[in-house]
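Re: that chain you flagged

S.,

Sorry for the slow reply, it's been a week of failed gels. I finally had a moment to sit down with the sequence you sent. For the record, here it is as I used it:
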Amino acid sequence: MSDPAPAAPTYEILKFEDLNGWEEDDHQAALDVFLETCADIKDPEWASLCALATSQPNAKGFFELFFRPVVINGDEPALFTGYYEPELKGSRYRGGQYQYPLYRKPPEVRNGTAWHTRAEIENLNLLAGRGLEIAYINDPVDVFFLQVQGSGRVALEEGGAIRVGYGGKNGRNYSSIGQELVRRGVYNKHQVSAQRIKSWVRNNPVQGRELLQHNDSYVFFREVSEVPADKGPLGAMNRSITPMRSIAVDPAFTKLGAPVWIEKQGKGPLNRLMIAQDTGSAIKGAQRADIYFGTGAAAGNAAGTIKDKGRLVVLMPIQLAYVLAPGG
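Prediction finished late last night. Pasting the structure tokens below so you have them in one place:
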């Protein structure tokens, strides 16, 4: 018997005074990030707002005048996590400790079509020796987590660095290896973190390889040479994302480029206006968001501790908001 279809989302319009911490936020910082991608939103409701945003309005007044806060309620409770841009050690050439490739997408892989699983790709060496290698990394666990993150920097043994970004995937569903460790009884749910998973896999190389292959999804990369070093990695809108102002969302519910007010609970609560500029294979649901923390180990440590409840409120153009929630 198949699972029941998910319920249609519901929409509730709020007032700006209903948003916890709205008055205290840096609205100009959010507007600056909004301007990075607003021109890429092709819907006519957004085009006029983008034109107004470029005229350097009072940022807080701009959002309050032309938007309405809308809560989109889905089947799942709110969940906030964090992500970052890893910095890996690697080389253009295979040798010594650098044995684990980052691959470009093979030409036979088609978007939206299921290809071989992660286990098949790795165990059958389906990518090796085809000239698809971008660089070789010194740690297979770092390669796996780079695929989860979707982008990163590689410091090259021979000098310099390259940035890699998402280049496609094998069309298989993402499965959480953290949840799999909990299912196997290795950890309790509250113990799981990215750092703990990495440590366990490194300490259990045979079981660790099998655990990573539990996730059928496999991500390919492309070299991103057009992004300056002082800019963030490219998000799903093909624009640089900004630490602590960009989030990844499920575009089935939240328009990419939209301002989104988040109220993250837990340790280090965060009430802030973010911009939805990215997506992720694990980011599914109307109340699901991944907060971008920045580049490097410190950002990774901070992002890895985030798994909190809260509330996500999308700022929608007024006309669109009242179409979706006519009684609001």
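What I noticed first: The chain has ten helices and 15 strands.

Talk soon,
D.
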